[in-house]
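Example record used in the benchmark description.
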Amino acid sequence: MQAGPERTIATERLLLEPLVPAHALALTRFARLWEVARYTASIPHPYPPGCAEAFAKQAVERRRGGGGWIFAVVPPDRRDVLGVADITLSDDRRSGELGYAYAPWTWGNGYATEVARALIRFGFDRLRLDLIGAYAMVENAASCRVLAKAGLRRIGERTLPAPARGRDILCEAYRMVWTERLV
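Model output (structure tokens):
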């Protein structure tokens, strides 16, 4: 993994670019799909016009304010956005929460695991976090496998608010402290 001056992260097969409004159109292509939104707490469905643009602007503000990093996951040719992945920082900046969403046509290629591992390294090595956590809906077995393969340890279940779903959701909770790093 390499991180350039703008904090672009290169993995074996992908680039993670800080999300900006220029990524919004490509993000809308998959975020508008129910098969993507159904496993998230925050992607509304139907996907309103301008939602991706607003999300990208919030990503820029979050970086500036020190609240975390949201990346567009792109192939090396940078012709498409395959997904988004992020680390949201706690108020004290000592821990972070990993999150992601990918286009369905990319599922099953190992991209989510590759990116999760890169963000875990970024969180511990660059951001100097003490702990990284993540949640996945219990019915999203693929996402639970991604988190486990990325090296996070399942610590139980937790009910979390899901504003975009209009209800609370039951999630599996995962975490890794910096002393447990294997990735």
